[in-house]
Amino acid sequence: MKLTDVYAEWLPIKKRQVKESTLSCYQLIFINVIKPKFGNEDVETLNKKVVMSFIYELLDSGSKSKKYCSDILIVLKMLIRFASDELDIIVPDTSWKIVWPTKNKIAAPKLERYTPDEYKKIVDYVIDNPSPRNLGVLLTICTGMRIGEVCALQWKDIDLDNKTIHVNKTMERIYIPDNIGTARKKTKVEIGSPKTTSSDRYIPILKDILPVVKKFAAVCNPDYYICTCDEKFIEPRSLRVYYQTFILDKVKLDHCIKFHGLRHTFASTLIENKIDIKTVSTILGHSDISTTLNVYVHPSDEAKRDAVNVGLKRIFR
Questions:
Q1: Range of the domain at 145
Q2: 90/120 same-domain check
Q3: What DSSP letter does each residue of 181-247 carry, written as one string?
Q4: Tens digit of pLDDT for each residue in 129-155?
Q5: Which of 219, 224, 266, 288 has its CA 20 to 30 A from that of 302?
Q6: Both 159 and 258 in a single domain?
Q7: Domains in the chain: how many in total?
Q8: What is the pLDDT of residues 209-220, one digit of tens each?
Q9: Domain-located, residue 311
Q10: Could you tell me the pTM of the whole model?
Q11: Widest Cα–Cα separation across the chain
Q12: CATH number at residue 58
């Protein structure tokens, strides 16, 4: 059975099992990458040797990242297993794992963050110049929320009595491939459940920014969105565009890191101020502490200097 035919059988069933945004990612991977290579191949022929050769080819060419290649492999294996479990086709074993290039062969990207002085400058500007979009930036750098989470946040998610924010949904723009297998340019904004179970969480509101939050809450309908103070929302890509202008033209920093760097700045600042990893991980909505350590926690040059000077102080007395 051709892989394209397996995909046609698999799609309506998978649609009932996962979020629309997740299904869209699977569809785009199949349409853009898997179908051109294996669409007309019999699923019975897709063994470890064939698949590994393709994945390594993508990695070696530099056209696809390790993460994207991993996602391709996930979709391929899902389709092959579906052919076996649901269509009773005898297929190659899929329990094998690929050997990825070692980390020293793939340079880890340096995650950007703002310095403590820049952090304070951003916070001070918003407190002095409150606006709905500025509030969105402020909440991000003071809570570590993802951009989709802050865009989906409504005033009914704010509990002023307990001084907490309930992160219970996220917003993203997704592509809408059709069932035939062509990637159309049509997209839509989806508001759905958070990224993972751990992402549904309560975050305490920093007491220093609570007065700003209260002023907005006093004049906003509970169903209004935080970043617009209106029934209409601002989507992530529009907030990113605003944020860049905000940092360079309003706060007047001499550089602007990615919006996600606000989350990274928040996490790194907590860690450097001796907040335990488990607490930070819970606030960020990570399901595994190792994610917090490996992805978001990177000591600054100043922190490393302090570690060396303090740690070895007694030796040189």
A1: 116-304
A2: no
A3: S---S-EEEEEES-SSGGGSEEEEPPTTTHHHHHHHHTTS-TTSBTTTTBSS---HHHHHHHHHHII
A4: 999 999 999 999 999 999 999 999 999
A5: 288
A6: yes
A7: 2
A8: 999 999 999 999
A9: no
A10: 0.78
A11: 76
A12: 1.10.150.130
